[in-house]
Amino acid sequence: MAEAYIVGAVRTPVGTRKGGLAQAHPADLAAHVLAEVVRRADVDPAAVEDVILGCVSQVGPQALDVARTAWLSAGLPESTPGVTIDRQCGSSQQAVHFAAQGVMSGTQDLVLAGGVENMAMVPMGANVGFALEHGLALFGDDWTQRYGDQEISQFRGAQLMCEKWGFSREDLEAFALESHRRAVAAIEAGRFTSEITPYNGVTQDEGARADTSLERMSQLDPIREGWALTAAVASQMSVGAGALLLASERAVNEHGLQPLARVVQLDVVGDDPVYMLTAPIPATQRALRKAGLDIGDIDVFEVNEAFAPVPLAWAKETGADLGRTNPNGGAIALGHPLGATGSVLMTKLVYELHRTEGRYGLQTMCEGGGQANVTLVERV
Known about the structure:
The chain is α/β, with parallel strands linked by helices. Helix content is 36%, strand content 18%. The protein is built from 13 helices and 10 strands. Strands 1, 2, 3, 4, 5, 6, 7, 8, 9 and 10 form a 10-stranded mixed beta sheet that branches. Helix 2 (66-73) links the parallel strand 3 and strand 4 (82-85). This is Acetyl-CoA C-acetyltransferase.
């Protein structure tokens, strides 16, 4: 099987819903990172064989195959096609998988993967609005026969995890505070500068709060009465885009590219759709087993902080070191622009491996429907 290499990775800053990126058209935002990753790799854009972007809410300005419209908006060759995919929060991580698999299969040599989401312009859930407006069920009779008419939501799933693993509100808030602390430290140290391409005058991530505290978090109302969850321990709704260029060894040699990382293992696993957010646990275990690696072999983990109990339960079950997990803060502090987050996390992971001279990195994300992707990479 052919090897797949990441030869370019770049992201926009992750903006808040009322920040400097809120009015950026998603296609323009994605166009910016697509053009920039091609420019940084110094490769002929006509050599790119496909563009695969993740985007969750594919309505309005995020409709009409935003991967294709973004590529064309960037002024890049019409000969390169594009496709937009939805694996919920893991959409752009799955885009990286599809790109890598195209390269590893030997059928493609140079593929762009990434994602975009503007949650200020296209709110979360906008793509299910038609069903709700017309009184149509989101789940059919067969689903109801299997799972009943119980609530299926990320919020309930996160609370169920708190109850199953015994996490208190204080546990969640301590984790959230550390996420902000790490993110603020990373921003102040300039750790993200080289991976970020500024947009509309925004040069750094907008979500991290230097002034937050356990006391301030304790004053927030829970999402529901009696729950451990509050807004402080959940990811922020955000705006952002990211792009990675995947190449075969042949393309590396032909175009004189400089690999940043080698793709070691790709996996995606399904788990309980009611708990919804637990799949990173079995996905990580299986990916490591397939790769012949142990959890202790991994130098850096990027685990999406959709809610604090997700990485906490994942670490408890896998034995992963939380000190190596999201070392520069996670989505609780930096934000979670849905379809873009997978590419943002992979970009962060690759750059952090180079900064620390680590060898192996692992990325995983919980996803709607009770799914999770895992990507293992090795620094080159």
